[in-house]
UniProtKB/TrEMBL annotation:
Residues 24-311 form the Ppx/GppA phosphatase N-terminal domain. It comes from the Bacteria. GO terms for molecular function: exopolyphosphatase activity. It is an enzyme of class 3 (hydrolase). This is Exopolyphosphatase 2. The lineage of its organism: Bacteria, Bacillati, Actinomycetota, Actinomycetes, Mycobacteriales. Belongs to the GppA/Ppx family.
Amino acid sequence: MALTAAGVDCGTNSIRLLIADVAGDGGLRDVHRETRIVRLGQGVDATGQFAPDAIARTRAALADYAELLRMHGVERVRMVATSAVRDVANRDVFFAMTADVLGAVLPGAVAEVISGTEEAELSFRGVVSELDSARGPFVVVDLGGGSTEIVLGDGGVAASYSADIGCVRLTERCLHSDPPTPEEVAAARRVVVEGLDAALRVVPVESARTWIGLAGTMITLSALAQNMTTYDAAAIHLSRIASSDLLAVCDRLIGMTRAQRAALPPMHVGRADVIGGGAIVAEELARELRARAGIDELIVSERDILDGIVLSIAG
């Protein structure tokens, strides 16, 4: 009999849920998958604390998720918190909130903060479990709100690094105008290049053959590259984007106003103000991977850390 398990991933920009049935062979069948933009990391880079309204938005979304856990008879849940939670001064408020909301459904359940290394490993496991090993080694990039995880591996993780260059953090730090000025974009690029230089000293991507991109920014870039008018998960999953097409989409996004981005059909309303920062990260990654490994395309996966979280509690 299949086990019904759930993973919750709470990041800087979004809180995400996967409820899945776990087969005897460890395969996952999605029951429910959902993303809410809650901007938990609002202002954290500047203040070092969670804002009360950010906690309230996150609590409201988590309460809805808890009801889904109850409705689907979830037997095990694991909630992980990533970049936004690692260094804030008032994170106890966040953990108390998660214990209250999740504990009402599954006693004792509470969020846990994980390191960038574990975040990278969970993302890698969630993605490569369904890929053809002949395409490895893989470089898996999870481009989030507060950080970007870069993982190299084949059968397992060989090297990983968590760089503080997420789309929310970069936007709050550098991209203040609407649209961003050339000077702001140049400053953001310097931050990204510096972050990638540190990351790629640790992660030797020169040996990689395939680049896999995860999470909301990458998914949105795929949708835009495919000229989608509505979000289509099946068409996005394992879609392949030539680097030239990726750079063209990123350049267009960076130069747009927030209102222009929000008007794009596949754009989530909560992502329009920060995706320019994510596009800068994606551009610089594309350039580095082409120069260092000769990789000239991005494959975008709908599988990600959520799948790794569920697999981590399935046994």
